[in-house]
Amino acid sequence: LGFVKVIHECMNNLNETQRLQRSLQDLERMRSVWAAGPQARQTEEHLEKLKAEIAKNLSTRMCHDTILQDPKMLSPALQFARLTATWMLGIVSPGYSPTTSVTFPLPVPAPPELAMLPEYIVDDLAELLLYVSRFCIHQLAGEHMKEIMDFLVTFMGAPLHVKNPYLRAKFVEVLRLWMPATPGHQGPPPQVVQLFDAPPLVTQHLVPHLLRLYVDIEFTGSHTQFYEKFNIRHNIGELLEYLWGLHPHQENWKRWANDESEFYMRFVNMLINDAIYLLDESMKKLPEIRELESAMDDMATWQAQPQQQRQERESTLNQSRRMTQQNLTLANVHIRMMNYTTEKIFAPFLVSEMVDRVAAMLDYFLLYLAGPERKNLRIKDPEKYGFKPKELLTFITQIFLHLAAGDKNGVLCEAVARDERSYRPEVLAEVANLLRRQGLMPEAKIVEFDQFAAQVQERAQADKEDEEMFDDIPDEFLDPIQCTLMKDPVILPTSGQCLDRATIQRHLLSEQRDPFSRALLTPDMLEPNTELKEKIQAWVKEQKAKK
């Protein structure tokens, strides 16, 4: 068998073993429930069968590792991977060598020598690196990895040269495994970690290429793209969090966000979309878990239920636990990213097409964490699921403060006040109380939040008075999607419809198509409706004069 073929068999064996171990853990966790039931004997036999299958798989795994981790076999395989990487980089950047760098931009279209290569050449290289990085990363200590690092960074951000986004996502997973390890875990050799800092190619291009892949993975054509993107973006998020702590990468990130503002807006939009979905799904599952755990604590009532009903509810609980743990793990990465980046990069979050969504998201989750229903989120062992309400409350408050500090025009305050769905003055007051009682933030920061909350409440009162003033808005002045008074009406040339600029630009961040005709539409195609804007301004002035 070939080297990569054995790696595939090893990984299949590992995945099957993990599936069996999860089943075993679920049964052991529910032992107190089924042990006294009529199916106790059959369940115990099933447990023993699972243990035997796991033991057999572990023996097979040891045989695989004995061959795959033999230095006499592994070292030549890594050397071949290095040569392959150098050869492919030479195709797109003639003159590339271990002592030089790749020349950007890469040629478009891709050179025929590269375009005609079968995909498995790159896939095999990625699978080899993944196996080594997961299970025997110490073997990289004696290898020259500079060319492989150049290869991963270069082609990760080259969708016209490596078109399969899932293949490029494997490059991210490799690099994530090359980050310094957490205490108590074996990490990569120091010379591998140093690759993130040393070559100019890495410090200049790694962050932009990660951000581009984050956006590219949104639409892959796969029927499972919606769920797969979260795991890929989790790896990207963890790698970006590490890079933010390295000064050259952070400076390049800030510079790139400013220079490529239109693209960065799309990234921020998808970051917010993911955070909203993952946190919302988690918050909705936690009360379900709490209810089922409470039902199972009442043993007499639980045992009185039909066996099939108990099994169905046990299955639902286990599934909810796994989904919640996964969603919270993914969501925490996104919230942390919003927290550390908004301290330095706040402008994209405050533009007209984005600020309302940011405010609505933060208000919504503060309502969960500090509102009257927060008691429903109390479950057994919340840390086991990655649910850290104190940390989450702190992060969301800090995001508010970061954005408010950079908001010179008060747009965030206005957006929070406009949020009729989730904004509650009493909730913001309770947030400050919780922060003080739990000692989660310095008093000076809490005072800043109190001041921001007071500004929002004052703005909300002013908006209420304006609403009474504009209680009969002509239909032609209303945005057809939001049903709100337009401020900057624009015409969509692809359908002839007229929308507020902020509304259509917010839509175009997710999909550059006319929402009415589905034709291709980009921001530069929007046509200002100057005549209608002047009529709206005159009407507003007239209404204010009447009052």
Protein described:
α4 crosses α6 (120-135) and α17 packs antiparallel against α18 (389-406). A hairpin with a 6-residue loop joins β1 (489-491) and β2 (498-500). The chain has helices at residues 3-29, 31-34, 40-68, 71-92, 112-115, 120-135, 146-156, 165-177, 190-193, 200-216, 225-244, 247-259, 261-297, 299-303, 307-342, 347-350, 352-370, 389-406, 411-418, 425-438, 443-469, 501-510, 530-546, and strands spanning 489-491, 498-500, 527-528. By secondary structure, the chain is mainly α. The longest helix is centred in the middle third of the chain and has 37 residues, at 261-297. A three-stranded antiparallel sheet has the order 2-1-3. The termini are far apart.
Summarize this structure briefly.
The chain is an all-alpha fold. The protein is 69% helix and 1% strand. The chain has helices spanning 3-29, 31-34, 40-68, 71-92, 112-115, 120-135, 146-156, 165-177, 190-193, 200-216, 225-244, 247-259, 261-297, 299-303, 307-342, 347-350, 352-370, 389-406, 411-418, 425-438, 443-469, 501-510, 530-546; strands spanning 489-491, 498-500, 527-528.
